[in-house]
Amino acid sequence: MFNSLVAKDEGIVKLVDGSACEVIDTKTFKVTCRDGMVHALEAVRYVPEVRYNLISIGWLDEEGCQI
């Protein structure tokens, strides 16, 4: 998914435990759902130190998504 990755300083993200991790890049990804609908996830941050894929519920709420 990161075949066009360009390493650049994108800042940091703070995790729940208080630690901070460097953001290497920010991209937009298209996701195809089971029903065939295609959605774009914008401003997806690549953080190599985070071992899991995380989606912020707060960010989705701010963007007007129904949760």
Description:
The protein has one helix at about 55-60, and strands spanning about 10-15, 20, 25-30, 40-45. With about 70 residues, the chain is mainly beta. It has one domain (about 10-60). It has a two-stranded antiparallel ribbon with strand order 1-2. It is globular. The longest helix is centred in the C-terminal third of the chain and has 6 residues, at about 55-60. Helix content is about 10%, strand content about 35%.
Outline of the structure:
With 67 residues, the chain is mainly beta. The protein is built from one helix and four strands, in the order ββββα.
Placed side by side, the strands forming the largest sheet appear as 1-2
Q: Whole-number radius of gyration? A: 13 Å
Strand and helix order: EEEEH
Helix share, percent: under 10%
Mean pLDDT, to the nearest integer, reads: 78
Number of domains: 1
Number of helices: 1
Structural class, from helix and strand content? mainly beta
Bulk shape:
globular
Low-pLDDT ranges: none
What is the end-to-end distance?
Answer: 26 Å
Total strand segments: 4
Beta-sheet strand percentage?
Answer: 25-35%
Largest sheet: 2 strands, antiparallel
Chain-wise SSE layout:
Elements: E1 12-14, E2 20-22, E3 25-32, E4 38-46, H1 57-62
Antiparallel strand pairs: 1-2, 3-4
